[in-house]
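Run log // design_07
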C-alpha cells in the first residue's frame, strides 16, 4: 500500500516525531521510531535519521541567510544610481571624489537627503560602489561613443596609470595598454 502524504502533512508529522525521538531512550526504541517514520513518509533510513536528529532541514524549509547584514539599503542604492547615471556612469574610483560635488547639486534639484543616507553615501568606498551598482551596470551598459576626455577630472582622481614593471595594468575594471 503506497500512500503519499502532502509536504505539509509530512512536516507536521516530522515535528511530532522529532519530539518523540528526542525523548526516546535506548537504541531499540529509537530504531522502532525510525522504522515507523520511514514506513509512513517513504523516506530512506539514513535520511530519516538526519531529519529526526535535527541535522537536516525538512524539505521545503527556507535557508537561513548567511553573512553580514546589508549596510546600504535599497533607497541609498537608488539615489547612488541616479547620481551615477547623471555623472555618465563612471567607475567607483572616479565617482568617489565626485560624489561630494554631485550631492550638493543633486540635493538642490531633487530636494534634501535624509542625514543617514547622505552620510552613508559619503562614507561608501569605491569598491562597494561598484558592488552596489553592479546590477544597474548590466541594465545600462555604457554607450559606444565616449565623450571627450576631461583632463581636469583625470588629474583630480588619483589612479596609477602604469605599473612599475611596465606591463599592462587593470584600471577601474578595464585593461589598459602601456605606452
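design_07 sequence
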Amino acid at each position: 500500500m503506497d500512500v503519499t502524504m502532502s509536504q505539509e502533512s509530512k512536516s507536521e508529522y516530522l515535528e511530532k516525531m522529532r519530539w518523540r525521538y528526542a525523548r526516546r531512550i535506548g537504541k531499540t526504541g529509537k530504531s522502532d521510531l525510525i522504522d515507523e517514520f520511514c514506513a509512513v513518509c517513504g523516506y530512506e533510513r539514513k535520511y530519516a535519521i538526519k531529519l529526526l536528529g535535527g541535522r537536516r532541514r525538512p524539505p521545503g524549509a527556507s535557508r537561513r541567510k548567511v553573512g553580514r547584514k546589508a549596510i546600504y539599503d535599497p533607497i541609498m542604492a537608488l539615489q547612488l544610481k541616479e547620481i551615477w547615471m547623471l555623472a555618465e556612469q563612471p567607475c567607483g574610483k572616479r565617482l568617489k571624489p565626485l560624489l561630494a560635488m554631485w550631492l550638493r547639486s543633486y540635493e538642490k534639484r531633487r530636494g534634501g537627503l535624509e542625514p543617514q543616507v547622505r552620510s552613508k553615501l559619503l562614507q561608501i568606498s569605491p569598491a562597494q560602489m561598484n558592488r552596489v551598482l553592479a546590477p544597474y551596470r548590466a541594465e545600462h551598459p555604457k554607450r559606444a561613443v565616449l565623450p571627450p576626455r576631461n583632463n581636469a577630472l583625470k588629474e583630480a582622481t588619483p589612479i596609477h596609470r602604469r605599473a612599475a614593471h611596465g606591463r599592462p595594468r587593470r584600471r577601474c575594471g578595464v585593461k589598459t595598454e602601456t605606452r
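Residues 38 and 44 are 6 Å apart (CA to CA).
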